[in-house]
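Example 398.
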Amino acid sequence: MNQLSNRINSIPESATLAMAAKAREMKEKGVEVISLSLGEPDFKTPKHIQDGAIDAIKSEDFFAYPPVNGYLDLRKAISEKFKRDNNLEYSADQIVVSNGAKQSIANVFMAILNPGDEVVVLTPYWVSYSAMILLAEGQPVFVRGTIENDFKATADQIKEAITEKTKAVIFSSPCNPTGSVFTKSELTAIADVLKDRKDITIISDEIYELINFGEKHESIGTIGDLQERTVTVNGFSKGFAMTGWRVGYIGAPLWIAKAANKMQGQYTSGNCSIAQRAALTALNGPMEPTIKMAQAYENRRSLVYDLLNEIPGFEVNMPQGAFYFFPNVKHYLGKSINDTKIDTVNDLCMYLLEDAHVSLVTGEAFGDPECLRISYAASEEDLTTALSKVKESLAKLS
Ligand code: PMP
Ligand code: GLU
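Predicted structure in complex with glutamic acid:
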């Protein structure tokens, strides 16, 4: 008998991970799938960071339970990073290191939401925000940006969405899935809307900070007195190609940092000791490998932009950061081939997986049912092959 909780039944499986699993399954059966579904750097973790971990193992000093909120020297280095790179002042006790930024964000929702509390989610949003809010028994309120305004929800839209029940606002910049980057003036307009609501926590997910092709990265926490109620989320997965090491962190108002610490003290304990030493090496080490990776992503962005523009019916914007394109593909809805009817973008993604052997993720998972997400964290060769196959398969639909 299925006795699952309403809580777990209320959320879907992570669409990004599900699509990656499907692609993996097909690969195991011998099908050559090109996976553009998961937001996962195709680079190796830089050598000096690997060495940091190896040294930590060899020292035999890091085998015991680490502090729940992270080693003090790592938290101090993160505090300095926030000051140096973002002009944010979070002391070491306002930092909590977690098992990836995913857990960092989940901790915050678990810490601040009561049943029925609303969270304004700038949409398109990263797939897990809504599920995490639901798990914490909150209510996501989606504020939608469209391709016309570069997928950036406006301050006015946010103002309209705010109610007495609003407890938090969350967004990512650079944004997953759209690659949009909020400018200082856009952030200032959002800050202005929030300035009199001291009871609203702003969750600013900046995990793609180091993959930004345009203007200098800006943190909303630097505007006015907003830092007092801003949680700045960051991590090592993207900028340092460390997805598997699972290290993310927050800088937060002390009451939230303490609660996040309490939360993970009961749930997971601290983040893996060796991974933390690798993360410390990353923060203290040379940035050239990161800069090189960002340069490669920028070159791929130009390549993919040109290839996507050759696909009839794809409406494409130019992302300013991260490593995703989020084309509007509504042109293909309602088309079919033999017995396969494409009613939704999910149908389209399944068709492309089966026919073109390319895995992508439906925009529905990110709050936009007319779009799909393409991760270009893949080699130029794979990107070129994959998109020419996608084009061929789409041409068969009528
Ligand atoms: N935020 C955003 C916007 C993301 O794309 C991701 C995906 N990795 C995360 C948070 C979580 O990252 P991780 O748990 O790997 O640190
Ligand atoms: N953040 C990545 C993505 O959006 C990794 C997958 C995940 O953590 O859901 O694809």
